[in-house]
Write a structure and sequence with these properties.
With 300 residues, the protein is an alpha/beta fold. 42% of the residues lie in helices and 22% in strands.
Length: 300
């Protein structure tokens, strides 16, 4: 009996410790990029849903942007469509775009919405095409190799098909939803001037939406602990002004570069703080939001 009371007291202390953070973030908007292992492990998926529901329950406005690359590749493989990449970006012709939209909007989005609703939340699934929320234009990429082989030649433009970049975010739909206590879940598909769909990197969509909503925080869930220094130690707090130096000396490299660039862009658009979190850690969102130590890397 005494042990049970002591255990309850410890739980109460945790809630009291979290109270200042709850008060600080009440009424604020938090953008969460949902991806990686947290999207495939059943236990982590349920925890993610419960974390998001808890945020909404205490007056915080979570907005979720999700990826789905592995799921897209799985269906492409079943349809015998060979994926093609240029500098890490998926070449998206018309046929591939149909698959991308089918998987992201028709399957992955609805699975996340269904899970949140099943766990007691009120989620609504959207794509960037709904209400012209995420307006986009064709992403133009130039080859770096041309200048290396022929120094005086202009860079060669590479056609990635319907791969887009965000030009504008119309926030009306989102504001209406979270004022009615709904949790928006957004697939990273944008709409062009011609009304056609664009495949857009989910990190970039999350960053653009965070800026448009003047979000308090942008959180990117990943499969790594965060940004690490040369010795492999986690950098828990990082001023945005130090990013260029870390990229230049190779400390930040590979797939971490677009993530820190996304954070940099979000901060420039007015987001207060950005975070790169290890989505494999149980309750990573709550640990970052409601503890002094936090988890992952905060870029401010």
């Amino acid at each position: 009996m005494v042990e049970n009371v002591q255990e309850s007291i410890e739980k109460a202390k945790v809630l009291i410790d979290a109270l200042p953070f709850m008060q600080e973030f009440r009424g604020k908007t938090i953008i969460i990029k949902y991806g990686g292992h947290a999207m495939v492990d059943d236990n982590l998926k349920r925890q993610f849903a419960l974390n998001v529901i808890l945020l909404k329950q205490i007056g915080i406005n979570p907005v979720i942007v999700h990826g789905g690359g592995p799921q897209i590749n799985k269906l492409l493989d079943r349809l015998d469509i060979k994926p093609s990449y240029v500098e890490g970006m998926r070449v998206t012709d018309g046929e591939t775009m149909d698959v991308v939209e089918m998987v992201l909007v028709g399957k992955v989005n609805k699975q996340i919405v269904g899970l949140i609703n099943h766990c007691g939340g009120k989620a609504v699934g959207l794509s960037g095409r709904d209400g012209d929320m995420v307006c986009a234009e064709k992403l133009k990429v130039s080859s770096k190799k041309t200048g290396e082989t022929v120094p005086d030649a202009p860079p060669e433009l590479i056609d990635l098909g319907r791969v887009g970049q965000v030009t504008k975010v119309n926030t009306g739909v989102l504001e209406s939803l979270y004022m009615k206590d709904f949790i928006p879940v957004i697939a990273p598909v944008g709409v062009g001037d011609d009304g056609e769909a664009f495949n857009i990197n989910a990190d970039l969509v999350a960053g653009a939406i965070a800026g448009a909503l003047s979000a308090e925080k942008l959180m990117l869930l990943t499969d790594v602990a965060g940004v690490k220094d040369k010795a492999g130690e986690l950098i828990t707090s990082l001023p945005v002004g130090e990013l260029e130096g870390l990229i230049g000396d190779g400390t930040v490299a590979g797939g971490m570069i677009p993530k820190v660039r996304c954070c940099e862009d979000a901060l420039r658009r007015g987001v207060s703080k950005t975070h790169i979190l290890d989505g494999r850690v149980e309750h990573a969102i709550l640990l970052e939001m409601f503890t002094k130590e936090g988890v992952g890397t905060e870029i401010y």
